[in-house]
Amino acid sequence: MTTSTSTGSPPAEIRYSAFLRGINVGGHRQIKMADLARMFSNMGFGDVRTVIASGNVVFRSGESDVAKLTRGIEGGLEAELGYPVDVMLRMVDWLRELVERNPFKAVEGEEGHRYVSFMQSIGNDVPALPYDAAEEGFRILAVHGNDVFSLSSKLPNGRHGHPGKYIAKHFGNVSTMRNWNTVIKIAGM
Length: 189
Prior knowledge:
The chain is an alpha+beta fold. The chain folds into two domains: 2-85, SP0830-like domains (Alpha-Beta Plaits), CATH 3.30.70; 101-187. It is 27% helix and 30% strand. It has helices at residues 33-42, 66-81, 92-101, 164-170, 180-187, and strands spanning 2-5, 14-20, 46-51, 56-61, 87-91, 113-119, 131-133, 138-144, 147-152, 175-179. Strand 8 (138-144) and strand 9 (147-152) form a beta hairpin. The radius of gyration is 17 Å and the shape is globular. The two termini are 13 Å apart.
Protein backbone atom coordinates (compact mmCIF):
# COMPACT_ATOMS: atom_id res chain seq x y z
CA MET A 1 0.00 0.00 0.00
CA THR A 2 1.37 3.43 -0.93
CA THR A 3 0.03 6.63 0.60
CA SER A 4 0.93 9.96 -0.95
CA THR A 5 0.69 13.54 0.29
CA SER A 6 2.08 16.84 -1.00
CA THR A 7 3.04 16.67 -4.61
CA GLY A 8 5.52 18.60 -6.64
CA SER A 9 9.03 19.63 -5.68
CA PRO A 10 11.95 21.46 -7.23
CA PRO A 11 14.27 19.22 -9.28
CA ALA A 12 17.22 20.11 -6.96
CA GLU A 13 15.65 18.17 -4.12
CA ILE A 14 16.96 14.72 -3.25
CA ARG A 15 14.69 11.69 -3.06
CA TYR A 16 15.21 9.77 0.19
CA SER A 17 13.83 6.69 1.84
CA ALA A 18 13.58 6.60 5.62
CA PHE A 19 13.51 3.11 7.12
CA LEU A 20 12.08 3.37 10.62
CA ARG A 21 13.04 0.80 13.23
CA GLY A 22 10.30 -1.03 15.13
CA ILE A 23 7.26 0.50 13.43
CA ASN A 24 4.19 -1.77 13.12
CA VAL A 25 6.00 -5.01 13.94
CA GLY A 26 5.18 -7.41 16.73
CA GLY A 27 2.26 -5.31 17.95
CA HIS A 28 4.50 -2.41 18.94
CA ARG A 29 4.31 1.21 17.85
CA GLN A 30 1.24 0.85 15.65
CA ILE A 31 1.04 3.90 13.39
CA LYS A 32 -1.28 4.43 10.46
CA MET A 33 0.70 5.10 7.33
CA ALA A 34 -1.45 8.15 6.52
CA ASP A 35 -0.47 9.59 9.92
CA LEU A 36 3.19 8.85 9.29
CA ALA A 37 3.00 10.55 5.88
CA ARG A 38 1.36 13.56 7.53
CA MET A 39 4.17 13.75 10.11
CA PHE A 40 6.79 13.85 7.34
CA SER A 41 4.80 16.46 5.40
CA ASN A 42 4.52 18.56 8.57
CA MET A 43 8.32 18.41 8.91
CA GLY A 44 8.47 20.19 5.54
CA PHE A 45 9.24 17.29 3.21
CA GLY A 46 7.71 17.05 -0.26
CA ASP A 47 6.20 14.23 -2.30
CA VAL A 48 5.83 12.04 0.82
CA ARG A 49 4.81 8.42 0.30
CA THR A 50 4.67 5.47 2.64
CA VAL A 51 5.42 1.98 1.36
CA ILE A 52 3.76 -1.00 3.07
CA ALA A 53 2.98 -0.69 6.77
CA SER A 54 6.44 -1.40 8.19
CA GLY A 55 7.80 2.13 8.50
CA ASN A 56 9.12 2.98 5.06
CA VAL A 57 8.75 6.61 3.97
CA VAL A 58 9.90 8.02 0.64
CA PHE A 59 10.14 11.81 0.37
CA ARG A 60 12.02 14.76 -1.12
CA SER A 61 14.27 17.20 0.69
CA GLY A 62 16.74 19.90 -0.28
CA GLU A 63 18.98 18.88 2.65
CA SER A 64 22.07 16.97 1.49
CA ASP A 65 23.55 16.39 4.98
CA VAL A 66 22.20 12.91 5.73
CA ALA A 67 23.28 12.92 9.39
CA LYS A 68 21.59 16.28 10.00
CA LEU A 69 18.47 15.16 8.18
CA THR A 70 18.35 11.89 10.16
CA ARG A 71 18.63 13.75 13.49
CA GLY A 72 15.87 16.14 12.42
CA ILE A 73 13.51 13.32 11.45
CA GLU A 74 14.23 11.38 14.66
CA GLY A 75 13.56 14.54 16.69
CA GLY A 76 10.36 15.30 14.80
CA LEU A 77 9.04 11.76 15.21
CA GLU A 78 9.89 11.66 18.92
CA ALA A 79 8.11 15.00 19.46
CA GLU A 80 5.03 13.69 17.64
CA LEU A 81 4.96 10.12 19.00
CA GLY A 82 6.38 10.59 22.48
CA TYR A 83 9.13 7.98 22.13
CA PRO A 84 12.39 7.70 20.17
CA VAL A 85 12.38 6.10 16.72
CA ASP A 86 15.66 5.10 15.04
CA VAL A 87 15.82 6.19 11.40
CA MET A 88 18.07 4.71 8.74
CA LEU A 89 18.08 7.14 5.83
CA ARG A 90 19.15 6.28 2.28
CA MET A 91 19.01 8.20 -0.99
CA VAL A 92 16.72 6.42 -3.45
CA ASP A 93 19.59 6.61 -5.98
CA TRP A 94 21.68 4.56 -3.50
CA LEU A 95 18.92 1.96 -3.32
CA ARG A 96 18.91 1.76 -7.12
CA GLU A 97 22.65 1.09 -7.00
CA LEU A 98 22.08 -1.71 -4.47
CA VAL A 99 19.45 -3.27 -6.73
CA GLU A 100 21.84 -3.09 -9.69
CA ARG A 101 24.62 -4.71 -7.62
CA ASN A 102 22.17 -7.42 -6.48
CA PRO A 103 24.24 -9.34 -3.93
CA PHE A 104 21.63 -12.10 -4.18
CA LYS A 105 22.26 -12.89 -7.86
CA ALA A 106 24.30 -15.99 -6.97
CA VAL A 107 21.47 -17.36 -4.79
CA GLU A 108 19.64 -20.18 -6.52
CA GLY A 109 15.90 -19.88 -7.25
CA GLU A 110 13.67 -19.66 -4.19
CA GLU A 111 16.45 -20.48 -1.74
CA GLY A 112 15.72 -18.61 1.49
CA HIS A 113 14.42 -15.15 2.28
CA ARG A 114 16.54 -12.22 1.13
CA TYR A 115 17.04 -9.28 3.51
CA VAL A 116 18.90 -6.01 3.77
CA SER A 117 19.79 -4.66 7.20
CA PHE A 118 20.10 -0.90 6.99
CA MET A 119 22.62 0.14 9.65
CA GLN A 120 23.16 3.62 11.08
CA SER A 121 26.87 2.81 11.01
CA ILE A 122 29.17 -0.18 10.74
CA GLY A 123 32.37 -0.58 12.74
CA ASN A 124 35.80 -1.27 11.29
CA ASP A 125 35.98 -4.91 12.39
CA VAL A 126 33.62 -6.45 9.84
CA PRO A 127 33.95 -10.26 9.78
CA ALA A 128 35.11 -12.04 6.65
CA LEU A 129 32.21 -12.57 4.25
CA PRO A 130 30.35 -14.51 3.17
CA TYR A 131 29.60 -15.99 6.60
CA ASP A 132 27.60 -19.22 6.62
CA ALA A 133 25.68 -20.20 9.75
CA ALA A 134 23.82 -23.13 8.20
CA GLU A 135 23.01 -24.63 11.62
CA GLU A 136 21.30 -21.34 12.56
CA GLY A 137 19.61 -20.97 9.17
CA PHE A 138 21.26 -17.86 7.77
CA ARG A 139 24.12 -16.54 5.69
CA ILE A 140 25.60 -13.05 5.64
CA LEU A 141 26.46 -12.52 2.00
CA ALA A 142 27.93 -9.03 1.70
CA VAL A 143 28.21 -5.49 3.00
CA HIS A 144 27.90 -2.39 0.86
CA GLY A 145 28.29 0.92 2.64
CA ASN A 146 26.20 0.60 5.82
CA ASP A 147 23.98 -2.12 4.42
CA VAL A 148 24.27 -5.83 5.28
CA PHE A 149 22.79 -8.46 2.95
CA SER A 150 21.61 -11.74 4.42
CA LEU A 151 19.77 -14.87 3.43
CA SER A 152 17.49 -16.69 5.86
CA SER A 153 16.89 -20.40 5.25
CA LYS A 154 14.33 -22.85 6.60
CA LEU A 155 15.41 -24.83 9.65
CA PRO A 156 14.34 -28.43 10.43
CA ASN A 157 11.66 -27.07 12.81
CA GLY A 158 10.03 -25.24 9.87
CA ARG A 159 11.06 -21.76 10.99
CA HIS A 160 13.51 -19.57 9.14
CA GLY A 161 16.81 -18.55 10.70
CA HIS A 162 17.17 -14.94 11.76
CA PRO A 163 20.55 -13.18 11.49
CA GLY A 164 19.53 -10.23 13.69
CA LYS A 165 21.62 -11.11 16.76
CA TYR A 166 24.68 -11.88 14.65
CA ILE A 167 24.34 -8.61 12.74
CA ALA A 168 23.90 -6.60 15.96
CA LYS A 169 26.98 -8.24 17.50
CA HIS A 170 29.29 -7.93 14.48
CA PHE A 171 28.06 -4.89 12.55
CA GLY A 172 26.19 -2.61 14.97
CA ASN A 173 22.97 -2.66 16.96
CA VAL A 174 21.13 0.31 15.43
CA SER A 175 19.56 -1.15 12.33
CA THR A 176 16.35 -2.21 10.70
CA MET A 177 15.83 -5.12 8.33
CA ARG A 178 13.78 -5.10 5.13
CA ASN A 179 12.85 -7.79 2.64
CA TRP A 180 14.73 -7.44 -0.65
CA ASN A 181 11.43 -7.14 -2.56
CA THR A 182 10.54 -4.06 -0.49
CA VAL A 183 13.92 -2.51 -1.34
CA ILE A 184 13.35 -3.21 -5.04
CA LYS A 185 9.92 -1.57 -4.84
CA ILE A 186 11.25 1.56 -3.13
CA ALA A 187 14.21 1.83 -5.51
CA GLY A 188 11.73 1.91 -8.39
CA MET A 189 9.87 4.94 -6.99
